[in-house]
């Protein structure tokens, strides 16, 4: 069972390189009650690609979630404040 919601949406833009990327992640329970980390990435304005990782415990999913967040921050992604997450799931 997931004890709290985990949702993240970050963007990286650079007009000089024609770069406009997004990266979104969420941890939610799957049908069997296991933790599922779903991530979606691509060019802003597109559906992008999606990948899901299934874990026995929430803790394992959170470890990967935080590791991916650190990687994205190092690459220059910034958290974008939004009223709602885009419909990517």
In short:
The protein has one helix at residues 58-74, and strands spanning 6-14, 19-29, 35-43, 49-55, 78-79. By secondary structure, it is α+β, with helices and mostly antiparallel strands. One of its GO terms (molecular function) is DNA binding.
CATH names the topology as q64v53_bacfr protein fold
| Secondary-structure element order, N to C | EEEEHE
Count of separate structural domains: 1
Strand content is: 35-45%
Round the mean pLDDT to the nearest integer and report it.
88
What coarse outline follows from CA principal-axis ratios? elongated
The CATH C-level name is: Mainly Beta
Number of strands: 5
Helicity range of the residues?
10-25%
CATH homologous superfamily caption: WGR domain
**Number of alpha- plus pi-helical segments:** 1
Description:
Pfam families: WGR. Keywords: DNA-binding. Residues 5-89 form the WGR domain. There is one protein chain. With 89 residues, the protein is α+β, with helices and mostly antiparallel strands. The chain has one domain: q64v53_bacfr protein fold. The chain is 19% helix and 43% strand. It has one helix and five strands; from the N terminus they run ββββαβ. It has one helix at residues 58-74; strands at residues 6-14, 19-29, 35-43, 49-55, 78-79. A five-stranded antiparallel sheet has the order 4-3-2-1-5, covered by helices on one side. A hairpin with a 5-residue loop joins strand 2 (19-29) and strand 3 (35-43). The chain is elongated, with a radius of gyration of 14 Å. 16% of the residues are buried. The mean pLDDT is 88.
């Amino acid at each position: 069972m997931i004890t709290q919601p985990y949702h993240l949406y970050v963007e990286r833009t650079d007009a000089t390189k024609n770069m406009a990327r997004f990266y979104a992640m969420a941890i939610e329970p799957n049908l069997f009650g296991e933790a599922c980390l779903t991530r979606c990435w691509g060019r802003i304005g597109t559906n992008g690609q999606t990948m899901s990782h299934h874990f026995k415990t929430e803790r394992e999913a959170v470890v990967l979630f935080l590791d991916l967040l650190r990687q994205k921050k190092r690459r220059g992604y910034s958290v974008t404040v939004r009223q709602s997450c885009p419909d990517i799931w």
